[in-house]
Amino acid sequence: MQFLGKEIPSPLTLASGILGISFSSLQRIIRDGAGMVTTKSLSLEPRIGHEGPIIAEFDGGLINSVGLTNPGIQDGLLEVEKFHKEFEGVSIVSVFGGNAAEFVRLAKAVNSSSADLLELNLSCPNVEDEFKRPFALMPEKITEIVSAVGAVSQIPVLAKLSPNAYDVAEMATLAEAAGADGITMINTLGHGMVIDAIARRPVLRNNFGGISGPCIKPLALKLIHDVYQKVDIPILGTGGVSNGLDAVEMMMAGASAVAIGSAVYERGLDVFRSTRLEMEAFMETHDYADYSDLIGLLEEN
Amino acid sequence: MKRDRQTLPIVAIREENVSLRTFTFETSLQALPGQFIMLTVFSQGEKPFSILDVTESSFSMTIKNIGPFTERLFQMDVGDIISIRGPYGQPFSQETGRILMVGGGYATPPLRFQAKVLREAGVRYLVNVNGARSETDLLYVPDFMDYCDRSLIATDDGSQGYRGTSVAVMQDVLGEESFDRIYISGPEKMMKAATTVARQFGVPFEVNLERYMKCGVGVCGSCVMDPHGFILCMEGPVVDHKTLDKLEEFGVSHRDKTGRITAL
């Protein structure tokens, strides 16, 4: 099947922020059955991110407050180069800047690398103390950043939106109008909090974190469905997908490809291989010839 | 696969030397030698630590005071609470034939644990080489003497045992006797040297590796080792000689807190 002009063996994708940036883990994920990988978001300068605990589990999923840990755009793109050297695989490089000018500098750097696609992380919930409200919640910022990047990027640009916006479909429409080639959604939800009652403290060192995992899947499906009605550009769907049926549902809601994040924690790296097999089994049973046949099949009651 | 996090009081603190303390907690922990736990010190964060010992109702860890996190822990008293999750990672194997253990510096707690477990499992013959900079840095000398058939000591300054490294003593021991397996735990450069010696003698070995770890459960990517994307916190920290062959960055480089590659 194809995604934004790239031939991919399966719609499954590593979501940004899981398993870091090292070329070796990215290659491993493709070998394990993914069609594409998304890097951790790269910023202009290296970032350590938040102190641990950065992750806490609860009955419905995970809360994380990684805080954009990354080696910086320069070292990060070296990993991307190594990933592509003598290796077949589609890369999405995710970037995060503090303003439109930074996003443009990052986009130029990514364009001069062998990266296939560029994802603008407009929606990280874990750096509000530094960067204030995520750009994906501010219509004028979406327009400003996406059009500034669109003017310099030769490779397709995905805008990663937030589930916390009041009208996500409206935000997607703005991103499309500003020149985005695709939409990635949803990012983690919240903030949420997990509390240690004995210690009378939040478990996360940063107190709050973004919620992911099975509990956010219904929200992701609804928002992807909404956005699919409003835009003509492809959607990279993500949010709580843990198995083949989840991925099928997400494509039926309107996603052209599906990213997996927290399920790596639940099912291990093998989640890509097993999810792919589960999808294929569903498609065979129900007579779908190709992954792309599933996109947007949902009929409302 | 949901793992339990536990918040517990410290039940005992033992001073090992000027910078090392052993902290004991009361809970049943199904842990094997080489595994680690993530320890939270409230208001100070979370770090991984190897396990010194478990009993039916308790476990303990020997910790060196090296920075703000451990400094805060060292200010704590019996009764103060911490939080743990784990145990995580792959332990040492339980080979009980003729065993050689080689330890360096403050990385010996997992070997002490391994010696105890192997002794209980009826190990045929157990030799330990315990190396440290100086006499005052040596750990668990009486314990190793208890558990092992031969217990050798090497200090860099010669203040106790042989003057020199544990690897030099290991080489001598391998020249004298045959072994079925070698368990190695120490600073990476020392382990690198030890593995070279082990390969010369053709003895299978396992090493206990360390990398910067943040989530402990295989998702954050901090501890990934090149070039095959080996996830150390989940697939290690103990790796055998065959796996180590594939970890080209062993003894060469590691990744810092941002994920950048830096020389070891």
Oligomerization: heterodimer
Helix content of chain B: 10-25%
User: H/E order of the elements of chain B?
Assistant: EEEEEEHEEHEHEEHEHEEEHEHEE
Profile the largest sheet of chain A: 8 strands, parallel, barrel
Low-confidence stretches of chain A: none
- The total beta strand count of chain A reads 16
Shape of chain A: globular
Main structural class of chain B: alpha/beta
Cα-based radius of gyration of chain A, to the nearest Å: 18 Å
Largest sheet of chain B: 7 strands, antiparallel
Could you tell me the number of beta strands of chain B? 18
Mean pLDDT across residues of chain B? 95
Q: What is the overall silhouette of chain B?
A: globular
Task: Give the N-terminus to C-terminus distance of chain A in angstroms.
Answer: 29 Å
Task: Output the number of helix runs of chain B.
Answer: 7
Q: What percentage of residues of chain A falls in helices of 4 or more residues?
A: 25-40%
Number of helices of chain A: 10
* Mean of all residue-level pLDDT scores of chain A: 96
In short:
Chain A is α/β, with parallel strands linked by helices and 301 residues long.
What does the model show?
The complex is a heterodimer of chains A (301) and B (264). With 301 residues, chain A is α/β, with parallel strands linked by helices. Chain A contains ten helices and 16 strands. The mean pLDDT of chain A is 96. In chain B, 23% of the residues lie in helices and 36% in strands. Chain B has seven helices and 18 strands. A seven-stranded antiparallel beta sheet of chain B has the order 4-3-7-1-2-6-5. A seven-stranded mixed beta sheet of chain B has the order 11-10-9-8-12-13-16, with helices on both faces. Chain B has a two-stranded antiparallel ribbon with strand order 14-15. In chain B, a hairpin with a 3-residue loop joins strand 5 and strand 6 (58-64). In chain B, helix 4 runs parallel beside helix 5 (188-200). Chains A and B meet through helix 1, strand 5 and helix 9 of A and strand 4, strand 14 and strand 15 of B.
